[in-house]
Amino acid sequence: MSQDEKIYQRYLEGERPPNYRTLSGVELKEFYTAEDAPREESPPGEYPYTRGIHREMYRKRFWTRRQQSGFGTPQESNARLLYLLEQGQTGLNVDTDMGSKLGLDPDHELARGDVGLQGTSVTTYEDMEELFRDIPLDKVSTTLIVQPPYSAVITAMYLLMARKQGIPESSLIGTIMNCPITQLAGPAFQAATHFFPIEQAVKIGLDTMEYCVRNMPKWNIVNINAYNIRETGVNAFQEGAFALSLGADYVQRLLDRGLAIDDFAPRIAFFTAAHLDFFEEIAKIRAMRRIWARIMKERFGAQNERSCWFRTAIQTAALPLTAQQPLNNIVRATVQTLAAALAGTQSIHTTSYDEAFSLPTEESHKLSIRTQQIIAYETNVVKTADPLGGSHFVEWLTDRAEEEILKIMDTIQNKGGFIRCFLDGWVEEQIRDARHKYAREMEDGERLSVGVNTFREEDEEVKIKIFRTSSDMQQQRIEYIERYKKERDQGPVERVLEQLYQKAEGDKEANLFAPIMEAVEAGATMGEISDALRRAENFEIPV
Question: How far is CA 80 from CA 76, 176, 360, in A?
């Protein structure tokens, strides 16, 4: 039988799924009835918040449209941020480059090749001012994407900028990612720990959280990044269990510092993925809301209802987006965005269709915003809360997601908590096994991807516009930081860096956020502050 005959025979027989499982491996029945999900959930806005943390949800306020951005110089990123706001973005999501994420200035030999490529290069207070020029800090919610200990430096820069603008810390709205574990998971784990040990990074992350709790009541103190873990290939239940377990670890460590649960729990946020299994992703978020509410109330004794809210930003998954037939990714991202909205998220980033090639162009960034706007303004899915609530299938799948997530959480708890599991390498083992399983399913055709392992175009010629940084951008940044260090008053910088070192070396329990902020104010760079901390921990950068 020829290939053409095989194709037509398949069409005559009727096409069907390769299996009847969700992406996480749950076997599905032909249909579901009330007997499969006999329990009736509380209305939206009521504990345990399965159906949403607000009664009216998007009837009262849409989710925040928050496209991630950052590239090149702070000036270039500022122009893109202003462009996105003009297109209707309602919150900012600012990413830094790899050098900034590893505490290296652009002139460091290990940073030079990556300057401004994966995010914007931020190394001085002046950079932060350029990045947010003409953006009102007390009117636009900003998420700053960087992990400890470097999140303390970025937060200090942001606060100093607000002070100089006369904006009180109590008025600032936004989030610092501030999670050293989930921000760089999988292969990047080794890269991160090569430049700073995890235990000390967790400690400085907690220092930053404590400062924010005491001084910034509207600021989210940590954004637990389940998304990056999911992008390594783990399934929906692992994503949920890992994130919730880590959240519980942070809660306990803040309690151990003497903070009251209801003083900080409302400011803990999550960052989750929306993959392509439409109903499973919705069920996952509903289950995570329910589990988190019960953890906060039953385990930690929270009294404030806001302490029990599972608040999450969702980014549509990049893992299933393909370099082959890239325009197909517009459809994928739209389906994922709709799932995020129906799940009841607080914020959405719709990943751009050119993700497999580059950072987003202005065109693809705008299309992502328009995708969200069409769903919000044209589909009417926003006019009732939890519109899939009561579906026999969705309620059954929510219960099953809760069951599977709790099983994994119990395993993690028995092993000493998520941070302990991470340090022991157990989490990396789970990620590695999941990645291999994902690859096998693709190779065996158990997981289909249009254009990759089905409906391929062997002679495809991809023609899309690729984002490119300016050719002299990296050299500009290197020359800038060399000039900056040469022209500033070096005496105060050396004094504050020595004070920071002595504080970190002499008192292992001291909160280091205030001395880090003093170093920023004196003109120290990201790399110099990071080096002072590394020196205190007898941790040298390899050369």
Answer: 7, 20, 10
